[in-house]
């Protein structure tokens, strides 16, 4: 593969790391732009983004402007004078004046099959919707969110048991394999983007903690998707005795008729009656504690009759 010129890689999340690792060998010069280090973990110590951490380990130049819309970011990228911009999971919209900065069209690697699941959490949205396949889209960035023309797509069949971190890891590895050849065509001026079909567009907004709240009136299949999709944050959670109980791992089962919705069903495995079917709890995390086996949690309740989701 020939080199692809002077590139500004704009990314934050771990899904962009495997592709970033491929770029030093195929670029003439590389600037990595990521979000600033932020407090994280129980100690709230300042930590770099996954992209920043890997780029620094590799000895790459890393810049972390507070906002892409800032004068700092504009001046930085203007002075760098890249041949092209490549974005993967940055977490902010790219302002229009930066989209026209380089001579090549700016590219974005998006982890869904656009136009389906535009927006902030496309991998989780794919799982929540029960889609039979996920995938990657390489697209030209435009001012509208994830609405630019498509350069290439790679579908990925799903088993129906993936969590969001698992699917993101799979797509990250795929991106490192399939995107570099497209970047060579991009450098040669031979990409032929096609417009998105607006009729098929869906939009996923950023999640809030309340999106994790489990409504036991829904079907066990829907709740299983919620548990798998909303990992690691906001997580799927219910309440018991006025405290949160996170459901970290579960699977759907046929239900038992005639039981109150949200009741913990006697017997093994640990099951909760839903609007349709029952949700088997495999791993739970009581508020203020570490994740634990659901059977051990139930044994520690010291009572038989438990109704979840009632404060």
Secondary-structure blueprint of this entry?
Elements: E1 6-11, H1 17-22, E2 29-33, E3 38-40, E4 45-47, H2 50-57, E5 61-63, H3 71-80, E6 84-88, H4 96-99, E7 107-110, E8 118-119, H5 122-128, E9 133-140, E10 150-157, H6 164-188, E11 203-204, H7 220-229, E12 236-240, E13 243-253, E14 264-265, E15 271-273, E16 278-286, E17 292-293, H8 294-299
Parallel strand pairs: 1-2, 1-6, 2-5, 6-7, 8-11
Antiparallel strand pairs: 3-4, 7-9, 9-10, 12-13, 13-16, 14-15, 15-16, 16-17
Helix pairs in contact: 5-7
Question: What is the gist of this entry?
Answer:
The chain is α/β, with parallel strands linked by helices. The chain has helices spanning 17-22, 50-57, 71-80, 96-99, 122-128, 164-188, 220-229, 294-299, and strands at residues 6-11, 29-33, 38-40, 45-47, 61-63, 84-88, 107-110, 118-119, 133-140, 150-157, 203-204, 236-240, 243-253, 264-265, 271-273, 278-286, 292-293.
